[in-house]
Specification:
Blueprint: H1 48-55, H2 64-69, H3 75-87, H4 95-104, H5 113-121, H6 126-146, H7 150-162, H8 170-173, H9 176-186, H10 191-199, H11 202-207, H12 221-230, H13 259-269, E1 272-274, E2 287-289, E3 299-301, E4 304-306, H14 315-326, H15 328-342, H16 349-361, H17 368-377, H18 380-383, H19 393-404, H20 417-426, H21 444-447, H22 450-465, H23 478-481, H24 489-501, H25 507-518, H26 532-546, H27 549-552
Antiparallel strand pairs: 1-2, 3-4
Length: 554
Amino acid sequence: MSVTATPKRAIDPGPDNVRPGPRPSGPVPFLHGGTNPPPRGTPPLPDLYTIVVNRLGYGPRPGLRAEWQALGPNDDARLQAWLNQQLAHGSIADPEYDAVVSAAGYETLTKTRQQLWQQYRRHADWQVRGLPIWECEVEAIVRAAYSRKQLLHVMTEFWLDHFSVYGWESNTESMFPDWVRLMRTHCFGNFRDFLGEVARHTAMLYYLDQYTSSAPFPNENYARALFELHTLGSEHYLGVLDPLSVPDDGFGNPIGYVDNDVYEGARCLAGFTFSDSIDEGGDTGLFYYRDDWHDIGTKLVLGDILNNGANAPEADANDLFDLLANHPGTGRHLARKLCTRLVSDDPPQSLVDAAAAEWNAHIASNDQIERVVRLIVLSNEFKTTWGEKVKRPYQLLAGAVRATSYQQDWAVDAEDLSSLLSRLDQTSHGMFNWRAPNGYPDARIKWESTSPRIMTWRLMLWLTDTTDDVSGLKRLNAAAQTPPGIDTPTELADYWLDRILDRPVPAEDRQEVIDFMAAGFNPDLSLDLSDEDNHDRLRMMVGLILNMPENLMR
């Protein structure tokens, strides 16, 4: 594809690419019958393989359980071996992902920041300017669905939420391949290094208006996010308290931050911008420090006095990043967020404390984040927690592609792809589409609410129903993927339950799937899957399994 081509998502949808209609009125039936969801309860703990592939990856794939079993004599040994492999992601061969990406012909994903700025951001055609974000959007699904580097992408997704940037703006959309690459590069590394790189990236500088901040007119947007979201967290916010009256924690650290720290932090960061003209270091889009915009006055941040009026360029900002990255409160905040993502919405305090201690003990380590992830994943709390988190719509989509071998041309101008992405947007989990700087919610209550669930249900059913315009075949050809000899409703239900979930399900849930496929007839009679009605019912059964509560859990 050339950069002048128009991705289908940029044009009005055609007849087969329309938005779903209005939500039906009245009560919505649930799989278990009735119009009310079943009691949540506590689901039974599955085997460790199930926990790992659903929480540290994007779900099972055919053959994956056999690979897990071959890793060691017991689950603890397998987890250790699996984790070692995933953390050494640079040595993992990824042929299927590489083949899909190669076939899609993406143009922008390997471009440098300067190339993205000069070739796309400065392009007069808005469709060309938007190509980088479109390619990032599609490649994120491809990576989750096909890559063997599952933990790498799970953690990249975590940091994209933590350092959240809305991608669909003029100065961010063209820079997004480099932004995602930054998240991926640092996701297991040292947080202080990560923080400094984030602060100097064009996408963040633009998104929170830091690029406009000068000594006469400091902008507090990024400084506020830096304290409240990226480091100490809102749990350490003390309001308008006098900064000189903030008590310390017994080790010389203030117990939290106040508004004055944010104001002073904004002053430290004045002059952080990017170069967009010959007069400012060249038209590169790269970080540019304007010394003439810097505030040379003394600042008081977290009880420390910064700048005696003779500091070197960027020294105030670097001192600010040091203070924030080294504060124990940052370790506690990040430890809780990591435990929340990897274990449960309300992780045990003992695990949070252990993760925070590990974080703060390795502040200077190049593998600081990796060490904390390892501690969490190998903990007993990780191994014995299940069903306290749900998959978000993007994760369900990637898992559906993984489990069903859904056939899709993943080039940005491919048929049906625009419709798929539009339906994902309607679940409230469109890629890079969260406007606020706090990132997509990580709590199950958000994703169990009515609108995301209904729209995700419709997305899963659409996957089973869409047709390739060229071949005329269903993109999810369930009959063709069902092995010969499996043709009764009972056999079909068992095969696809195992294919998608890769674990046993409660007997009553299994029976409901069998009954759906049998449609009132004998569930042990053979069906002719070449018959259109039987094939349609099989596809709908697959969609039903994709929407089962058991498939939502992680």
